[in-house]
Write a structure and sequence with these properties.
This protein has 15 helices and 8 strands. The strands form 3 sheets. It has a 3-stranded antiparallel beta sheet with strand order 1-2-3, with helices on one face. Strands 4-5-8 form a 3-stranded antiparallel beta sheet, with no helix packed on it.
């Protein structure tokens, strides 16, 4: 009988267990009519595997798939399920995986991927690749979504990616790299600098619209004159201009296009402030006097703002201008402050997305209706609006208390 079988050390072997001639132990079992086998160097190790196997069978887990499939296999499966998404999203996902994940984890079996492996990967991307927290969050989104397929298909029990990004943020970033809103003083100094500068003043309409609407750079770049209603003083946001690298490497072909917003919240109507209206009219007048031939993107043209080459602006175009202007302003301000024997009022370097964050902060400082803020900003999730509102009001409260300093008799 099977129960009387023994190994070379005289120990009873259970059903499915056997000792091989090479000294290894094996366990055979059948699932859905298919015979499967695992091996171990000792009987105790084999029985540990048996316990896991029985647990997997009871829970409907496919442990064999976890030992066979690699992360690369799962990524390709995930990408096939997303073929109906827009090209920019697919390219971004592929670039993120192949550029950051594939080399270190791509060939690893799913059963072998642990929390620590992913933590080590992200630490490497921070320390050696110098990637920003925002970009790492994008990579984390891809990796977590891919591994979640294995969880839902009962291949692995839990997603080893969960919680990694939170720990990475705490350790490496905290407040560093956080997008900041400009203070009122910084915003005023920047705008006044542009208005009075003989070279940079041509950028004033562009930054007036950005600071006065909170538009995403793609939404701003995609604006056409037909979207501006000067009778009712409103702007219709219906699509975005996108500009991206098809291959993922520098020097490879770039592609542009016009895309609809990812969510219905992205389509919205924004009232024009009087300064914004004036900025649009100035830009329209300047455009009519120029001989710039505008590019045609996916059949769209007649954009409100274009470069000297006739193309809609990209975030790189705007950011490059911002950095140049801020550096120029700070250099002049430091010289003035030295002459006047005072501390300089400098402007922190910021990006075009910081302008959107600045608009949101000014909005939150003057508006308490979260639904209004959400609709104006085009946020899909009210939680995003609440986070922005909480941050902005926290800063406002801090400033209010500072302004009270010395104005209340306390002793």
């Amino acid at each position: 009988m099977a129960g009387n079988r023994k190994d070379s050390k005289g120990r009873n072997l259970r059903t499915g267990e056997s000792e091989r001639k090479d000294g290894y132990y094996q366990y055979r079992w059948t699932v859905n009519g298919k015979e499967k086998t695992v091996y171990a160097t000792s009987l105790s190790d084999l029985r540990k595997k048996e316990i896991q196997i029985r647990r997997d069978i009871e829970d409907g887990m496919d442990s064999q798939a976890a030992d066979t499939l690699t992360l690369d296999d799962l990524f390709h499966k995930w990408m096939r399920s997303r073929e109906n998404l827009r090209e920019t999203t697919l390219v971004r996902n592929r670039q993120g995986y192949e550029g950051c994940i594939k080399e270190r984890l791509g060939n690893k079996k799913l059963a072998k991927i642990k929390y620590s492996d992913i933590y080590d990967l992200f630490s490497y991307l921070v320390n050696h690749k110098k990637y920003s927290e925002n970009y790492l969050r994008q990579i984390n989104t891809i990796l977590q979504a891919v591994l979640e397929i294995a969880v839902k298909d009962d291949i692995i029990r839990r997603n080893p990616c969960k919680g990694v990004m939170s720990e990475i943020s705490k350790k490496y970033f905290r407040e560093k790299g956080k997008r900041h809103a400009l203070t009122i003083q910084e915003q005023e100094a920047f705008i006044d600098f542009l208005a009075g500068h003989p070279v940079y003043n041509r950028w004033l309409p562009i930054f007036t619209v950005l600071f006065g609407t909170g538009l995403r750079i793609g939404e701003f770049a995609g604006l056409r004159w037909k979207d501006c209603d000067f009778e009712n003083n409103t702007i219709s946001v219906n699509y975005s201009y996108v500009y991206y690298n098809i291959g993922g490497n520098k020097g490879q072909k770039m592609k542009s296009g016009i895309h609809k917003p990812k969510t219905k919240n992205g389509e919205r109507t924004i009232p024009m402030l009087s300064e914004v209206r004036e900025a649009f009219l100035q830009a329209k007048d300047a455009q009519e006097k120029s001989n710039i031939k505008q590019a045609v993107v996916d059949g769209y043209t007649d954009f409100c703002f274009v470069t000297k080459a006739g193309n809609p602006y990209t975030s790189s175009d705007i950011n490059h201008a911002i950095y140049s202007m801020v550096d120029k302003y700070n250099g002049e301000e430091e010289a003035r402050a030295a002459d006047e024997c005072r501390e300089p009022n400098l402007i922190r370097r910021f990006s075009v997305h910081s302008i959107r964050h600045t608009f949101a902060s000014r909005l939150c400082e003057n508006e308490s209706n979260l639904k209004v803020i959400q609709e104006l900003m085009g946020h899909r999730d009210i939680q995003t609006t609440m986070n922005v509102y909480a941050e902005a009001t926290q800063e406002a409260k801090r400033l209010s208390i500072e302004n009270l300093e010395g104005k209340i008799k306390l002793r």
